[in-house]
Structures are given as C-alpha cells and as structure tokens.
Amino acid sequence: NTAVAPDTEAQAVAPEHTRTGMSKASLKQAYIDNLFYIQGRFREVATPHDLYMAAAFTVRDRMLDRWVKSAQVYKTSHSRTLCYLSAEYLLGPHLANNLVNLGIAEVAKRAGEELDLDFNAILEEEEEPGLGNGGLGRLAACYMDSLATVQIPAIGYGIRYEFGIFDQIIQDGWQVERSDTWLRNGNPWEIPRPKISFPVMYGGHTEHYRDHAERPRVRWVPDMVISGVAFDTPVLGYGVDNVNLLRLWKAEAPESFDFQVFNVGDYYGAVHAKIEAETISKVLYPNDDPEAGKELRLKQQYFFVSCSIQDMIRLHLNTVGPLETFHEKFVAQLNDTHPAIAVAELMRLLMDDHEMPWDTAWAITRATFCYTNHTLLPEALETWSVGLFERLLPRHLEIIYEINRRFLDEVRMRYLGDEERVARMSLIDEAGGRRIRMAHLAVVGARAVNGVAALHSELIKTTLLKDFYEMAPERFHNVTNGVTPRRFIVVSNPRLAGLITEMCGNDRWIRDLECLRDLETHADDPGLQARWREVKTAAKSDLAVWLKQHAGVVLDPQTMMFDIQAKRLHEYKRQHLNVLHIIRVYQRLKQNPNLGMTPRAFIFGGKAAPGYYMAKLMIKLINSVAEVINNDPQVNGYIRVAFMPDFNVKNGQRLYPAADLSEQISLAGKEASGTGNMKFSMNGALTVGTLDGANIEIREEVGAENFFLFGMTAEEVRRKQTEGYRPWDYYHGDHELKSDIDLITSGLFSHGDTSLFRPLTDHLINNDPFMVLADYRAYLDCQDRISEVYDRPAEWDRMSILNVARMGKFSSDRSIREYAERIWSIEPKPIGV
Ligand code: BZD
C-alpha cells in the first residue's frame, strides 16, 4: 500500500511469509498490511480500535498455520480427543496471551515501538470475552491453555453468549449492572463456521412404534427446532505448535425456516419464532449458583450439549467410523452438572438416530463421560422439575427414567431392603415436587467423578455422594485445580517474570513451574529481596494509579501493605469478616491516634449476583466503610479502603501482581478449591486463610511457616453445627466484636441510617450460617501477627520468595497431566510445523 513507505528491512526478509513470519520486519509489514487491507485504514486516520484489530489479525494469522497443521495431525493419527463440555469460558483478553504463547511478545513490542504504536494502549483496547461467572468459567479457560500446552488433542465446547457477565459499576456505593456488549466491535479471534450447524429440538411429544424388523423404536416429534452454528477460536499452547479448538455455539433460526410453509399468513408469529430461537444464546446467567427453574437456562444447557454431541458423532463418523468405538475416540469431561444432560442426549442419539440397543448405548455412554463437581453447598446443587423436563425434553425424561429404573435395581440388589438408600440415590428427588438431581445423573452416567481439591474430594466421598462412593469407590478421584502461569505470571506480571527468568537462568519455569524451586536458594539473598520488593512496589504503583482513576481512592504503594480480597461476593467467602477487621483497626486508631501501626490498603473486587441481596449489601457496606475511613484525616494516613469496580480477568491481572496479602477466608468446608488463592501466591502475596479448599495444599507446599493460618477446621465446623451454633453468644461474649457490629448498626457508615445494614448485622447475630463470629477472634489475632511480620521486610520478602518458589504444583499443566494420565488415558500428541 502507499500509505506507509515500504520498509527496507521488510524487503530484506522476503523469504518470510507476511502472514507467518515472526521477525520484527515481518511483523511490522504484516501489521501495516492488516491495518490497510482488513480495517481499510492508514495510520493517520486509524482509531484505537483499528490499531487493535490490525494487531489481533497479525497475531491470529500466525496461529492459523499451526491450527491447520494440528487439525491434520489429530485427524490422520486418529488421536484420542478430550472434549471439555462447559457452559462457561472466562477467557480474558486474547492478544497479550497469544503473543506470549507464540513467543513473540518481545519482538512484537519492539516492532510496535518502531511503528510508533502505544503497545499498552492497544492491549487495553481489547474487550474481554466474559463468558463465565467466576472460578468455574476461568478454570475452563486455564484448562484450554494447558491442554494445548501439554499437547493433548482437545475441543472445548460451549455457548457463544452475545452478552457475557454484566459490567459492574459502582453508584453511590451500590453495584449497578450494565450489559456487556463484547461483540459490539466484532471479534477478530473467532471464525464463524456457518456450515457446521446442527438442529436442536425442544418440546412436543414422543411416539413409540415398531420398525420394519419389528424392533421397538422411539420418535421424538418436537414443537420447536432451532439451529446451532459453530464459532471457532484457536487456542495455542505455550512454546509448542499445538492449537486446539474452542467451539462455541450460537443459536439461530434454522436455515429451513420458511415463512410461507410454517406460518401461513402469520408473519408476526414467524418473526417471533426467529427471535425466540436466537434468545437461547443471548445472555449468560449471572448467578454462580443455579436459580431454580429458569426454563431458558435448561434450554441453553441442552442447546450446547446437543450441538456438541452431534458434532462429536459427526467427527467420529467422518474419521474413525462405527459408533461402537465412540468412547475410544472421545472422552467428554462435564464441567459441573451444567452439561449433565449430555448423558441422556448421547443415549438418545445412539438409540433413536443410530439404532443402537440400550445396553450397547449405555456401555458407550458410561465409558465416555467424566464429571467434575465444583460445590458442596446444597443450595448450589442443580435440580430441574420433572414438569419442566417433560415439557421441554420429553424424550430425555423417558431416558432418565429408564436409566434410573435400571440403576435403582442395582442398588436394591446390592442393599437388600434399604429403601431409604434407594430414595437417597434416586435420580429423582421425590420430596416436595419431583425434581431431577443433575449431580446424580452425572455420577451414574460417568466413569469417573472428581472434586477440585483434596479436602473437597474427601468431603464428596463422605457427605455429598457418600452412597455412590460406597457402591463404586474406584470411580472417585481428586484433581486439585491449577491456573496457567502464562496468563497469571508472564502476561500479568512481566517484571516478576523477568526477574524469575534471570534468577533461574532460563525461562523453562513457564512450561515447567516446578523449576521455580531454583529460587529457594536465593530466598535470603538481600540483593534478590531488594529487587523482589522493587518489582512488587512497581506493581502496587500501577494498581494505585488505576484505582485513583477508576475508584477515586488514593493509596500509597510505598508505605502501605496491599491487602486484597478479590472474588465473587458471597456470604460463605466472608467478605464481611474482612470488613469487621477493618472496623476493628479503625476503632483502635480512633481510640489511640498515635498507635504506631503498619499502614494498610484494604482492597476488594468482585461481582454480586444481581438477585443476591445480601451480597449486594456487602458491596454497599465495603464502600460505605471506605467513604468514612478514606475521609477521616485521623486515620487515613494509616488505612484506606478501595473497591475495584468490575473485577474481571483483565482487572484481575492488575490485582494479583500488586498484592502483599491475599485474603482466602471462606468458612472451612465451603470453598471447593479456590483458584484466586493460587494466582495471588504465584505473584508473591502471602495468604491469610482458613483450612479450606486448595488453601490446605498451598500451605502444605509453601510450608506452614510461610502461610498465615486461622480459624476452625472443616471438622470443627461440622461439630459446632451439630452441637448447635449460637452466634449470639459470641456477640455478647466479645466486647470488641460487639462494638464492631454495633458501629455498623449505629449509622456511622450510613449517614445516620440505622436500618440500612440491619439485614446484614441481624443475620450475623442471629443466624450466621458461615460462622463469621466464631472465627472473628482468631482472624484478628492472625492479622496482628501479619502486621508484625510485614514490619520486618527481610522476613516478609523471604516468605514471599518462598511462596513463589513452591507454587509449581498449582500450574494447570499439572492438573491437566493428572486428568490425562489418571482419568482420560490420553497421550500428548506433538505437532511439528
Ligand atoms: O469453581 C467455583 C468454586 O466455588 C471454587 O471453589 C472453585 O475453585 C472453582 C473451580 O473449580 N465454582 C464456581 O465458580 N461456580 C460457578 O461459577 C457457577 C456458575 C453457574 C452455576 C453454578 C455455579
């Protein structure tokens, strides 16, 4: 093009293809070409978004040859393939991550500089796909990164929501939700596949008949058919040529949709039907526990599951052949129960469409699925009313009944006369309105079940799925969660990544996180400690700048400890315990303004489910306490409180590097694993935490002396609950606790309004289901110890270095290898381009 003078350097590397070349000159030329030919712009008139798109296409081009090659290798070698079925993928921005995984982050940055581009501004321009709520959705994204990196052939299946998780803004201290319009400016990372499309049926009735050979058959006559269209996103592994596929389905009215034939004269009705079809992939449900009975949610689940299973069958028939070997080609991992209907769907397709007898179909189905549980909270276990199922998925209900009938026969045979056990294990909860227990369907239909941290997996066996464990203990596993160090160290914290690489002498740790152990020998080295601290302070400064701009709070990165709790707002996660500590410190300072204390910035981030009143009130409380403290000159030199609006992957990447202290304070036994705990610790934060979820394993790894432990154990919690927990006694038995709670109700934080926070304080005093009051004193004592240690920098830095050095276990690469070896039996398949 003529807009920019051709680069002489670019001409010098002529043999390099402009779409694949990795040299600086090629990248520059490709960037200018893309800006011109794809965006139709030259530099002088390009908008920031044009500049971003040109960068995205330049990077995407470099993934495509690897993608095609991977597909070829996987196909010709008939590779056993993992299909990850997840209703959520919380991917985060692609551009920086893909640059890192391609290994061209540095050269691209230099190319950008030479083109006079503001590299950071380009990265900031990307709108992240927020197709998930929290930990579960982010785990799916980390696993996609690791699957490619450890070279496991895999397809991630999910939903291409038009609106992802809402954007959070804070108004007058309250959370306000804004719709997330991530597709507004187009998505350069996806490739639409209009020809890969499947019909999905809903409603109607079934017909039982006999075929020409007098075999009993079933026909499902639906009253609605929509179509699912594939949108593919390449997922490149780090430092390898493997590119896996993330295939997300968009709901559309079927192609055969015919206004004339189906809706004679009813034009309006026809348009309505089209809209109804498209509604199915419109919006992500923003609850991180299932809201009972939402018909559209069940439609969404079945929608993506049906498309995915049909796609797997198509792939199998195209490559391997007979469906009898389906389970040898594919393993399907169910990410919680959201895709559990897949068990019935595969049965239906094998029997009704492919004429397989029940026993054969069942053997294949059972051999195909594995199920990951992510919660023990009873209110978070998914059930669907039989009535809704009958209306929406009549054929699946029949199949579920039949699965249940055969399964309960087995139970009866095994436990003669134990009808209570039969009722407990049934796929149908008969108590108070019949409901289908999706977790039971997943367990019965899967050959392996796993929890996401050691404690959680134990509790699954002893409580939630005890009966199932007794019947088939060999099917129960633990795979402790992990997170990808590419996004959560290399991309988020380049300064720390650089320092680690320097200390280790190479960057092998990025693919083998156990290499971080090399840092251990330097933990006491004052030289490293000083640089370690510099890196942390620089990240804190970046965060402080951002928070000043976006939350209007000024924090001092030099003197203040950054104490951060970032996660979904939930009573069991106990953000209010954190707030009680802040109020205690505040009161101490007010009583003794000369108290020499360690300055702290208390930073929060997290979204509340829009319908979860108590969680929203906790946000309001945090912001109200912030307002009082930050404006009180008597204390605000020592403590400040900030709420980061719109905690998402992108903003998380600002928080993790900047934390000195990571708050992981859920009630023991409630947090299945947690993954934020790992992200913080990997970035050198020390953890204050309970013996819950993966905290236990983090503490084991980093050493008890490098972890701030407090609170009851899961066993103590259980005992207290059975003995009868009385929060009232704690409230009256600890005058500081009482005075902290009373300060909330006094109206100090609510401009004199004594009723605003009542629902919260009353609930604590009278019910306190997550035992905040019981752990209060232990938490405060622990926090005092933390402040003391923070005042001894050499000790703190040593602990911080050791935390990072011992985080090898928490790479999602390790998790994926465990799944691959112990559960999936899938071998890595390297790709050589
Ligand atoms: O899954 C979370 C758990 O609470 C964490 O302890 C765990 O670390 C992660 C990953 O295993 N669960 C969720 O995030 N759950 C949801 O987001 C969710 C979403 C929709 C419906 C139900 C739950």
From TrEMBL:
Species of origin: Thiocapsa roseopersicina
TM spans (from-to): none
NCBIfam families: P_ylase (TIGR02093)
Keywords from the named record: Carbohydrate metabolism, Glycogen metabolism, Glycosyltransferase, Phosphoprotein, Pyridoxal phosphate, Transferase
Catalytic activity field: [(1->4)-alpha-D-glucosyl](n) + phosphate = [(1->4)-alpha-D-glucosyl](n-1) + alpha-D-glucose 1-phosphate
Pfam families: Phosphorylase
Presence of keyword Transferase: yes
Protein name: Alpha-1,4 glucan phosphorylase
UniProt GO molecular function: glycogen phosphorylase activity; pyridoxal phosphate binding
Required co-factors: pyridoxal 5'-phosphate
Entry's family note: Belongs to the glycogen phosphorylase family.
Domain of life: Bacteria
GO terms under cellular component: cytoplasm
Entries under PROSITE patterns matching the protein: PHOSPHORYLASE
Purpose of the protein: Phosphorylase is an important allosteric enzyme in carbohydrate metabolism. Enzymes from different sources differ in their regulatory mechanisms and in their natural substrates. However, all known phosphorylases share catalytic and structural properties. Allosteric enzyme that catalyzes the rate-limiting step in glycogen catabolism, the phosphorolytic cleavage of glycogen to produce glucose-1-phosphate, and plays a central role in maintaining cellular and organismal glucose homeostasis.
Record carries keyword Transferase: yes
N6-(pyridoxal phosphate)lysine carried by residues: 679
The EC number(s) this enzyme carries: 2.4.1.1
GO BP terms: glycogen catabolic process
